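FIELD: query
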Amino acid sequence: AGWFRRLLHKSKPSLVESNLHTRCSTSSSSSSSSSSAKSSSSSPSTNLVRSIPLSPVSLSDINASDSARWNKSYDVCICHSEVDLELVEELVSYLEGQPESFRCFLQLRDAAPGSAVVTELCDAVQNSHCWVMLITPGFLQDPWCKYQMHQALAEAPLANGRTIPVLKGVDRKDYPKELRNLYYIYMALKENSFRQIRDTVIRYLQELCRSSMSRME
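FIELD: result
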């Protein structure tokens, strides 16, 4: 009985070790097989998802007759003070003269004579894809500019690139609190700022068309 107990006591560790070895080899083989399975099945799908680029949206897509761009009357509504009209007319001329031929709403040019100011401002906001806020000392003192700014923010609270603040001659501390969650363009060199505005509008229209195309698919 004594020698049998000693033999049994010695054989247990070896049995445990062999079981452990068997388990380790099994788990390693299963993990290697599973990892190889993942590399042959899971990872391609993951890589495929990561490697698929967003479908490109070209100028022809934006200008196509069925483009979401044409769901509104204007691409850009310029909100400005009357004292800044000369600068705004330059901006509108620049945007409308681009290859994209942006459709701009300019209040003194496009508002219907005899219409109420409030109605025209609200219609301009609702019927435009993007809103450029030319924030100058005149803008900050003009109640109609602030009204139009609030209408734009109410129309698109999350912005998504639609509201484009442009600062000129205004200190950062005077930047409207309502817009402080949005990045702005600081107008130092006029040509650079005009190009930034153009690029921002293009990005929004591209995203708009891309979303529309993905819904159709």
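FIELD: remark
The chain is about 60% helix and 10% strand.
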